[in-house]
Structure formats: C-alpha cells, structure tokens
Amino acid sequence: MTKIAVTEMEYDKAEAVFSSAEGLECLPAPAVEDELSEAVRSAGIKYVIVGVQKYTGALYEALPKGGVIARFGVGHDSVDKARATEAGVLCANTPNVLNDSVAEYTLALMMAAVRWIPSLAKDAKVGVWMPRVGLELRTKTLTVIGCGPIGCHVGRMAAFGFGMRVVGCEIRDVDLGYLGFDEVHKEFAPAVKDADVISLHLPSIPQTRHFLNAERFAQIPKRAWLINTARGAIVDEAALYDALAEGKLAGAALDVFENEPYAPVAIDKDLRTLRNVIMTPHMASSTQESCDRMAERAMANIRLATERKYGEMDLLNPDVLAAL
Hints:
Blueprint: E1 2-7, H1 8-13, H2 15-19, E2 24-29, H3 33-43, E3 47-50, H4 58-62, E4 68-71, H5 81-87, E5 90-92, H6 99-114, H7 117-125, E6 141-145, H8 149-162, E7 165-169, E8 183-185, H9 188-192, E9 197-200, H10 214-217, E10 225-228, H11 237-245, E11 251-254, E12 277-279, H12 288-306
Parallel strand pairs: 1-2, 1-3, 3-4, 4-5, 6-7, 6-9, 7-8, 9-10, 10-11, 11-12
Helix pairs in contact: 6-8
C-alpha cells in the first residue's frame, strides 16, 4: 500500500474518499510544517496532500527525491515550488474541480451583499426590525478581474442567470473565449468605470500582490461592491479599509484575507468593525462535491507520480523532472 499523509482538515473534508481509496493508505497528519515533517520522516512517507498552510522549509527536507506535495485545491502560493524543485519533489494542484463551487459562492456573496442579508439576519435575531433597501442585479454591471476558468464561469452565471452586463479585465495576453462577456479590457480603469460589482479571480503571485491598492480603489465607482473569493494577498487591506470607511466603496464581501485566520494588517484598520463588510472563513470551494473531487484529483496525481507518468500530472514545477 502506498502511504499518503493528508493534513487533518483536508482529510476530514473528504474522509469517505480518502478512507476507501484503492491501493492507497491515507493517514491524517498535522498541518503545521514541523509536525507534518516529523510524521513524514517517522512513517517513511513519500507523498503528502496539503491545504492552504504555508510550507517554507522542513517539509522539503523531509520528503525524499521523487516525493509529491499535492495541493488540495487550485491555489498553490503556499508551496515553495523552487525549494521543492531543488529537493527533487514534485508539486501538483487540482485545477477546475472546484470551479462550480467557487463560482456559486461568489454569486451567493454578491446576492448577500446587495440585499444586506447578513446584517439584516443578525439584527432580526436580536429584535431589530429595520428593513433596508437593496438592489436588483438585473441590468447591473459586473466586472470580473481575472478571466480564467472561475472568472469566466462567474461571468456566464451572472449574464445568463441574472441578466447582468459583464465586463472582464484580463491582465494576461491570452484569448480565453469570454462567453457571456459584453466587453473585455486589458486595463483596470476602463473595466471598472461602470461597475456595480467587482469580483476578483486573480492568482496570488508576486506580480499580483496588492493588485487592488489605493490608486485602483480611487478608480472604482462609490456604488460598487467588491467580492473576493480568490486570494487575500491581491488586496491591500489597509487601502480597502480606508476606501470602505471613507465611503469610497459601497462594501466588500470577502472570503479570503492576507492573514488567515483573519487578523487586521494594522490595529486601527480592522475590517471586522465595519458594517458594510461581509467576512467568511475561506470556504468558497468547500462543498462536499468539490472536496471529493479535490481528494480524487490529488490522489490521481500521486498515482501518476508512482507510475512516472509525469506528463499527465497537474505538475506545477516541471523543471524538477530534470533531476528525476
């Protein structure tokens, strides 16, 4: 049996899939790097499936050459691909299997935001009966920043489901076939100039760190809501706080943050203190269906590695193959 260490939170999300995997023994393991590394060494484990915890050093030393770090998800900014390549460790993720879950959750946050659902529900439970006037989404403009698979899916759902006008902003030089989009721009300012809602779908890479900063917030209409189900690092949270507190943005619905669990980037800029902020704990991809698919895809990548079918893997660091 091939042993795989699966960080505990990810194991629990898809326990039925992991516990019944044919030919694989999936073992729950700590997510903290030092503890995970010790578990890997003591059990002679070559393959791990991990969540969003950042891994910076010990894990790459603990895994043997030809080992695999499989991300349970699509984002992989928490894995040091260069360090893994140097150690001869393959890295993989699970693209596309969570597109539906994240897109649906993005639309759910959008609806909750424009109809003030979280704050109204909280008030009603404590006897405050004060309806607020919301907005219809039909005919409103949604700007999708980052038109990859999830961004395009969100755009299609908004256009064909809600009758929204959808504008894209794609910073890469690619043509993705933007079905349902009314316009697609390469520059931020023209993409957001008429936006009622802005949804972020950029990866977290050095080039996108604090992509949404004070300068770009100033280009957004005051009526617009910001939705972020991508990565926290692409937003300058201090600048976001200022824009929200000063009425330069209608509100923000956020599932991801620079620090997780959430901690403010500055003591005087705590997003939790603002009434026009909706916060959830990085759960857009957490449906049972997507968790099961992520588990299956992560294990499939490991099986391919054991068979040396590297070209069929969702390989993030192909340069490692030169060392294998």
